[in-house]
Amino acid sequence: MRPNVFLALVSLSLPLAAACRLPLASKTLMNGVAAARAGSWDEAVRQWKKALDMGPDSAAARNNLAVAYEKQGAFEEARKEYEAALRLDPGNGVIKDNYERFKARLGAWRGRKP
Fold this sequence. Notes:
The chain is an all-alpha fold. It contains 6 helices and no strands. The protein has a single domain, classed as Serine Threonine Protein Phosphatase 5, Tetratricopeptide repeat (Alpha Horseshoe). Helices cover 81% and strands 0% of the residues. Helix 2 packs antiparallel against helix 3.
């Protein structure tokens, strides 16, 4: 993964994970970050889905899940999660930046603008 995408993933996860009301959800978010750092994207997806089961309004989990889906090539799922994360936290610059970079990469990959 490109360093700036990974840093955005980690920088968003840490502060929001600490703010979660459910300690287990926070731990699950961090388990997903650890899995992503190790390159285990399937495990990261599993952890972040589990975090969403505990707290479906977690913009951090949705953003992180979008990054993981993008890494796996599941672009439609990534788009849906980025958009959900932005609905939950529309002022979050990290999520906005991640989504804009995703759209640019997807457009380049498809040979057109998204």
